[in-house]
Amino acid sequence: MQTNPALAERKQRIDSNMSKIKHKIVVMSGKGGVGKTTMSVNLAYGLSLRGYKVGILDADLHGPNIPIMFGKEGVKLSRISEPLEITENLHISSLSFFVPDNSPVVWKGPQKITAIMEMLEGIKWGEIDYLIVDLPPGTGDETLGIAQNIGTDSKAVIVTTPQKVSLLDSTRSINFAKLINLNVLGVIENMSGFICPDCQKEVNIFKKGGAEKMAQEKKTDFLGSIPLDGNIVESSDNGLPFISNDSLASRRMNDIIAKVIEKTEKEN
């Protein structure tokens, strides 16, 4: 079977681009609505606050929301090669920088793969410590295309909520990651308990602890849990990662980041 020379050359350029990045982490979820993008944003921002050079690639082509969570909704860029600077240590790139606002992306599989390859090839992150890739939910074309092209040393973080339907889908994500040789760093349980702001009583709206049990069954590390917190929604809507606030959620997120750093640095 002959190799397409153009595709082979593109793959070489992608490999060269990705080789400058020390750690590449894809953030996955088995289903939508579990807070995957919120976890991606706060993981990246928290790493940048600790002095690491970080990039975020918004690879959710149908719902590119990373810019909104940094207060950059409506920003347009003329060149794909230059990611947008959020801070000295943090840069982001998203399809939303290059398409009209509120326009749906109506693409078939090959068009999605082409767009992903262009982003992996064209965005010049430079020599950075971490690239966080916010994937679309599920295990479709985009997820497979990115996982097969960002490098064999790539890692995955799985985000789920505690209820059974989300845990079942997240189990499939873990199986998928292992099938394509992504190193699974661990599982985050989001929306894990709600602390009443008035009485301080914890209410497990979506149950609690299911992700930790699932991680044990899949022989995967449990990174931690993030509770439901009204400040998370308010911060995200205002373009400010919730990890910058002093709250139970931010402290839990910092604990998760510490584990991610420990695991990635140990492997390196």
Automatic annotation (TrEMBL):
<dbReference type="Pfam" id="PF10609">
    <property type="entry name" value="ParA"/>
</dbReference>
<dbReference type="InterPro" id="IPR033756">
    <property type="entry name" value="YlxH/NBP35"/>
</dbReference>
<dbReference type="GO" id="GO:0016887">
    <property type="term" value="F:ATP hydrolysis activity"/>
</dbReference>
<protein>
    <recommendedName>
        <fullName>Iron-sulfur cluster carrier protein</fullName>
    </recommendedName>
</protein>
<keyword id="KW-0411">Iron-sulfur</keyword>
<dbReference type="GO" id="GO:0005524">
    <property type="term" value="F:ATP binding"/>
</dbReference>
<keyword id="KW-0408">Iron</keyword>
<dbReference type="InterPro" id="IPR019591">
    <property type="entry name" value="Mrp/NBP35_ATP-bd"/>
</dbReference>
<dbReference type="GO" id="GO:0016226">
    <property type="term" value="P:iron-sulfur cluster assembly"/>
</dbReference>
<dbReference type="GO" id="GO:0140663">
    <property type="term" value="F:ATP-dependent FeS chaperone activity"/>
</dbReference>
<comment type="similarity">
    <text>Belongs to the Mrp/NBP35 ATP-binding proteins family.</text>
</comment>
<dbReference type="InterPro" id="IPR027417">
    <property type="entry name" value="P-loop_NTPase"/>
</dbReference>
<dbReference type="GO" id="GO:0046872">
    <property type="term" value="F:metal ion binding"/>
</dbReference>
<comment type="subunit">
    <text>Homodimer.</text>
</comment>
<dbReference type="InterPro" id="IPR000808">
    <property type="entry name" value="Mrp-like_CS"/>
</dbReference>
<dbReference type="GO" id="GO:0051536">
    <property type="term" value="F:iron-sulfur cluster binding"/>
</dbReference>
<keyword id="KW-0067">ATP-binding</keyword>
<keyword id="KW-0479">Metal-binding</keyword>
<feature type="binding site">
    <location>
        <begin position="30"/>
        <end position="37"/>
    </location>
    <ligand>
        <name>ATP</name>
    </ligand>
</feature>
<keyword id="KW-0547">Nucleotide-binding</keyword>
<dbReference type="GO" id="GO:0005829">
    <property type="term" value="C:cytosol"/>
</dbReference>
<comment type="function">
    <text>Binds and transfers iron-sulfur (Fe-S) clusters to target apoproteins. Can hydrolyze ATP.</text>
</comment>
<keyword id="KW-0378">Hydrolase</keyword>
